[in-house]
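Let's do one together. I've listed all components of the complex below, 556 residues spread over two lines.
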Amino acid sequence: MTATAIRIRGLRKSYGELEAVKSIDLDVAEGRVFALLGPNGAGKTTTVEILEGYRNRSAGEVSVLGSDPQNADASFRRRVGIVLQSTGVEPYLTVSELIEQFRGYYPDPRPLDEIIEVVGLAAKRDERVKRLSGGQQRRLDVALGLAGNPDLLFLDEPTTGFDPGARRGAWQMISNLRELGVTVFLTTHYMDEAQSLADEVAILVEGRIAAQGPPGILTAGKQTRIRFQLPEDTRPPARSTAAGDYFEINTDEPTKELHELTSWALEGGVELDQLTVSHASLEDVYLELTEAEKGGAS
Amino acid sequence: MSGLSLAVRQVRYENLAFWRNPAAAFFTFAFPLMFLLIFNLAFGNEPIPLEGGRTVRFSTFIIPAIITFSIVNTQYTNIAMRIVFGRDAGLLKRVRGTPLPAWCFVFGVIAHAALVGLLLVAITIAAGALFYGVSVPTSTLPALVITLIVAAATYSALGLAISTVVPNADAAPAIVNFSILPLLFLSNIFIRIDEPPAWLDFIRELFPIIHTVRAVEAAFSPLTSGSGLRLGDLAFIALWGVAGAVVAARFFSWEPRR
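Okay, and this is what the predicted structure of the assembly comes out as:
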């Protein structure tokens, strides 16, 4: 049983009439990568900013590294690294100067070279910030969050606006952090990001947690999907449903179902174009939950 | 690291960033020198005879206005801009998330602005003495230093205070300039209004600028006998500074308004 880095009970936050967060319970164990998922406006940033000590909550209990972030003092700040969504740094300083400046704020900072190595900015260490690309600036944001050698790192949508190569690089970086034993609290709306990085995810929909657990467990028990295309004017098999240009069979018995489908196709001389068999992904779970909420609301 | 050394460190980084933008730095320094040049071209630089056979160049009497303008510019205008732009860019919020004490950050901004202001004053006086025969005060020098410190502190506090009412960076130049330019015109900075109508006199006496001009004049003019310290004016300026500090402390914001 590992210690708890973040504990939330009955958290609520209202802005006037608007209830942005409607009672959240969460636990994040030390040394884990936790991802908070949800569509825009679901209350992700509000929740994170309460944990970071930027916002006061309306109700509930919050403990981050044993402290109440609402009374965040210097000793709390020394143990927490924060990477916000919006970037803002001195554009005329260089990468290493800025990291050096932020290292100076902490009693036990991480070595400069190590930070630059982890975020992959070695080639840009003497470059001024204004000459960095968007992705490089985001890495610098993470570097500044790591400057104080934090026990807990908040990453608010760290890869938004990245090209696919840069995202892979960022994922590698976050994996490196896990190796270093840092607890990472991540928000994202990229499902593949959460699936490949997080030990545990929570899906936030309209201020409530709709599902929570390790990505593997959230997708367990979901059906396997068999998907294919048929030539025009072919009568589809009985158990399939149309989904756009495709036909789908969702099943708990993929082996039997696939056997029957291919037998049917062979007998009829039908080619199953674009045939795929896949297990439900986090994205399917997410879409199911967010669609259900939309349906319920309308 | 102690709070004080963190604060001093902030000044160093502010300074580093300031000089990395040479265009901005150049114009900060070119401004008062341009005024010195323009005033001399406009008003000439006649020698004025004083009692005891001494003469003093006319330029000596325009330096106090330029000094006051420099201090208002570096403390009030520049600090307000720095805070509003830093707030909009998320820089202030980021700093707030670190263990750096808030006062260290604010100190860094103010102290750096004051160093630039001091340098401006020194350059203005030096250029005046070098090129226009301006008389540099000796016996009233302590009064000049004290006056500059009081003025710098006050306009810094007022710069922080005005930053609390500016909603965003786009609005900053308009609001900050609107709040200060009319007063500069009325308060003998750019033009001298020696016998103003009563209402105008009443209005300008309410604000600290004309008191600053007067205090700097007393500390700079070779006509002054005695210490050159105008305690009444300094107290009035300081009162504005206290008011500004109270407003800033109460309403200062680390994040842009939503």
